[in-house]
């Protein structure tokens, strides 16, 4: 071949190489991030109409339901939860029966293998589409070897058609015993909420992402991450230690600053949506989905609204707006009720301050707000954080402003 022919051949080869490179780059740029599937915990111990309705309204968004089935507490008492079997059968998704074992239980050799296998048989007899048994045990890191033996014994007695799943804690990540533990389960769920000192909050996205990357390096099997949809009220004693945590009871709203030893921790929907988007982009090895804790219901005041939860699950843009409504009290002239109104599809953070510029003689706060003053005058100050559900209203106080037309009573929110 002549030098000219060789030169033309090289140019053609180079052109083909450039074209193929452009195709690869364009394909890579156009590649969409795979959306992680959603599972959800049904953690309610009593199945009310609101629980059934929430499951029915969430069909199509939830790939699998993780249902609290039984608990073994620190006193060794065994309690079985009876779900609504018809609702589970109609849920249209596989079911995981969750056995909660108290982390303070000392004698791990007493863990109920026979009762758990019997539980699985009972659930199948009720027609539940049982796909897995999940063990939720906040085991002390020093006892992981004993916990591994229990899981091996349970796995040996379970129907091979039923998977064995466990929850995992970030505190286990530095333990050499973790590898053997994870081999006993078909899948695991890393819990990254409510695992720190309550003074540090309910969820830290930066720390959680670090844990996820570390866990992906440790496990060789499919795993999921548990993320929060709820809030908790934490109470500290006079000695500075945590005296109590309430996560599933009705929210008790403080009416004054005397509640300084209690604090309401809340999972913010916007923060959680951003975290999900980030870990989807990370494409962590083995990460198979998200398990949301817990299924919100209309009766659960400490969880997101179903409207917000569905928006987060579908990865829809979240929109929220907070406004103040002032209206005359129907019984008492000169008294004006103050309410917050949330609009959009996202539960909105309660504003820190609601201020009036009107010349009012008296006021007071309720439902998490209290009367306060600063250099600019009278205001209602939030005394604990919280969320106002999408499309809902909350009365937060009243004003006494004589016979003033309520349209002239200027009230506005401050973040």
Automatic annotation (TrEMBL):
It comes from the Bacteria. InterPro entries: DUF3142. Pfam families: DUF3142. This is DUF3142 domain-containing protein.
């Amino acid at each position: 071949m002549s030098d000219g022919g060789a030169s033309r051949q090289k140019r053609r080869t180079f052109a083909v190489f450039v074209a193929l490179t452009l195709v690869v780059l364009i394909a890579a740029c156009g590649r969409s991030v795979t959306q992680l599937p959603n599972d959800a915990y049904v953690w309610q111990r009593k199945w009310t109409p609101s629980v059934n309705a929430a499951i029915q309204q969430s069909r199509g968004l939830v790939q699998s339901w993780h249902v609290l089935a039984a608990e073994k507490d620190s006193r060794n008492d065994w309690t079985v939860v009876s779900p609504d079997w018809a609702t589970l059968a109609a849920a249209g998704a596989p079911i995981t029966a969750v056995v909660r074992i108290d982390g303070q239980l000392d004698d791990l050799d007493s863990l109920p293998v026979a009762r758990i296998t019997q539980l699985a048989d009972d659930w199948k007899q009720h027609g539940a589409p049982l796909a897995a048994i999940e063990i939720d045990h906040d085991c002390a890191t020093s006892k992981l070897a004993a916990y591994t033996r229990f899981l091996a014994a349970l796995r040996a007695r379970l129907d091979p058609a039923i998977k064995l799943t466990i929850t995992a804690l970030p505190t286990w990540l530095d333990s050499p015993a973790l590898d053997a533990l994870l081999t006993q389960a078909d899948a695991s769920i890393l819990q990254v909420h409510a695992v720190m000192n309550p003074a540090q909050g309910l969820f830290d996205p930066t720390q959680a992402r670090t844990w996820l990357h570390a866990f992906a390096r440790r496990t060789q099997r499919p795993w999921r991450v548990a993320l929060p949809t709820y809030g908790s009220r934490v109470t500290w004693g006079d000695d500075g230690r945590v005296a109590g945590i309430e996560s599933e009871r009705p929210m008790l709203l403080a009416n004054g600053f005397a509640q300084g030893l209690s604090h309401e921790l809340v999972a913010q929907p916007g923060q959680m949506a951003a975290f999900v988007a980030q870990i989807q982009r990370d494409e962590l090895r083995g990460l198979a989905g998200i398990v949301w804790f817990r299924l919100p219901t209309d009766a659960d005041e400490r969880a997101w609204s179903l409207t917000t939860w569905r928006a987060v699950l579908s990865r829809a843009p979240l929109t929220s707006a907070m406004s103040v409504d002032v209206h005359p009290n129907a019984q008492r002239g000169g008294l004006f009720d103050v309410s917050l109104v949330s609009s959009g599809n996202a539960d909105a953070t309660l504003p820190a301050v609601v201020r009036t510029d009107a010349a009012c003689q008296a006021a007071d706060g309720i439902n998490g707000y209290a009367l306060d003053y600063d250099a600019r005058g009278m205001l209602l100050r939030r005394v604990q954080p919280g969320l106002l559900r999408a499309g809902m209203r909350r009365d937060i106080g009243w004003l006494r402003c004589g016979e003033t037309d309520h349209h002239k009573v200027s009230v506005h929110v401050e973040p």
